[in-house]
Amino acid sequence: MDETAERDVASLEGEAVAAAADETARASEPEDAPAAEETPAAPVFRVMSFESVLYDLADPSPFVHLQEAESPFRYLAIPVATVDAIAVHAAHIQVTGRRPTTHELLAAALARARVDVIAARIVRYEGGVFFAELDLMTPHGREVLDCRASDALALALRQSVPAPILCAEEVLQAYYT
Hints:
The protein contains 5 helices and 7 strands, in the order αβββααβββαβα. It has helices spanning 3-28, 82-92, 102-112, 149-157, 169-175; strands at residues 45-54, 63-68, 75-79, 116-126, 129-138, 141-148, 165-168. It has a 7-stranded mixed sheet with strand order 3-2-1-7-4-5-6. The longest helix has 26 residues, at 3-28.
């Protein structure tokens, strides 16, 4: 055989071996196993920094302002109740009252139970409402709790080392459309 024919035969043999290996791998997978392409993509989160709590007299409620930590430096203005705005601001400047507030009490209870706040995540934006989760690491494993954005922010900021504030990319995109 000439060199070209030998290369063609070797190429065909290599393709046959690869096809056989592929067929063996598919045969060993359970039939009810989902295909890899059916797995939903994990959400992308952006790190946000707490900027301020502002009360504009023209608006009915205060806003908590967060800004993206990296370019393009988008921001969110989250409307909150006045009492929640006070709680978030107090947590940011680390002020404690003579008697513990609800967020101070919960932060202390989490610390005594050896539960760490991993992150406050803003996960949805629907109809002008922000939905959040509090990501916790407990002695028994990870727990994720649904909560209001203001509560997640106040508890994240109340930690001895403030927990990161994350926002889903889809929330930022929905906010800017």
